[in-house]
Write a structure and sequence with these properties.
By secondary structure, the protein is mostly helical. It contains 10 helices and 8 strands. The two termini are about 30 Å apart.
Length: about 280
């Protein structure tokens, strides 16, 4: 059975930097990131951290009254898991909990940012701490501001007559598009996150790729031919244009095609095998 030790670690080149990740760091991202996000959320859900509830509620009320002249109030009324609530004129109170602060989104991205793996290449990781710090601060601020805007819209709609149940979950779900924006920002400052996912895919596919190469090598050495569809997979040719691609490839290297097989002459076999076993097959 082929194992990871049978081939070199993949190297992903991005913006003139090389990214090589250890298996341990990839496992840490997959396991520690969600666990840490959950633990951070639980920490902020402790009553000693309900000062965050007070800040968010009072800021929201401040902007509600500035923009909508609503006459809303922030009221301290401890009851079970709630300490604070919104008082909207003519409406039932809206109770506030930790989930309403938007901290859960910040926790998720904090886990991702903190545990995104560092490349083993010194140049690629030289400023990683600064990039992570910047990403954590900016993404947290964006989530916080968007969460305030979300509540302003929800409470104003509630104030003018919409049912709270109709607007609460729908607008909350719609605001999740911000996560996509944060992912784009992360890719700008911490490409390691997206690249690590690609890297995992490469590690998983590498044994399959090596097995295919060995199968092709054996077939060519014994019969001077190999299945066309197998070569298309190894060369990763586009399915829509692979006819034109394979035709050009055959012309460049002087191989022939017979039915569903590529034919290699005895004289061409050594070079064929050498080019096949390269990291990027048949790239002169």
């Amino acid at each position: 059975m082929l194992k990871f030790k049978d081939f070199k670690k993949p190297v992903i080149e991005y913006e003139e930097r090389k990214y090589i990740f250890s298996i341990r760091s990839l496992l840490l991202l997959a396991i520690a990131a969600p666990i840490s996000a959950y633990l951070i959320y639980l920490f902020f859900d402790l009553r000693i951290n309900y000062w965050l509830h007070e800040i968010v509620v009072k800021q929201t009320v401040y902007f509600l009254n500035i923009f909508f002249d609503m006459g809303a109030e922030a009221q301290f009324a401890p009851s079970g898991k709630y300490d604070w609530r919104f008082l909207v004129p003519g409406k039932s109170p809206i109770y506030f909990e930790t989930f309403c602060t938007g901290i859960q989104a910040i926790c998720v991205f904090a886990g991702i940012i903190i545990f995104s793996p560092h490349s083993q290449d010194s140049r690629a990781k030289e400023d990683i701490i600064w990039r992570k710090t910047k990403s954590l601060i900016i993404s947290s601020l964006i989530f916080y501001v968007v969460n305030i805007i979300r509540m302003l819209i929800q409470i104003e709609l509630y104030h003018i007559g919409y049912d709270w149940a109709d607007i609460h979950f729908s607008i909350s779900a719609a605001s999740s598009f911000v996560a996509a924006i944060i992912v784009l920002l992360l890719h700008k400052w911490i490409p390691e996150f997206i690249l690590s996912i690609i890297y995992i895919g490469t590690l998983v596919s590498e044994p399959i790729k090596i097995k295919r190469k060995e199968k092709i090598k054996e077939a060519v050495s014994q019969t001077n031919k190999v299945e066309l569809k197998l070569m298309v997979k190894v060369l990763r040719m586009d399915k829509k244009t692979h006819d034109a691609q394979i035709s050009k490839w055959l012309t460049d290297f002087g191989y022939k095609i017979e039915g569903n097989y590529i034919v290699v002459s005895n004289e061409q076999i050594p070079e064929f095998v050498e080019l096949l076993m390269q990291d990027k097959p048949f790239k002169r």
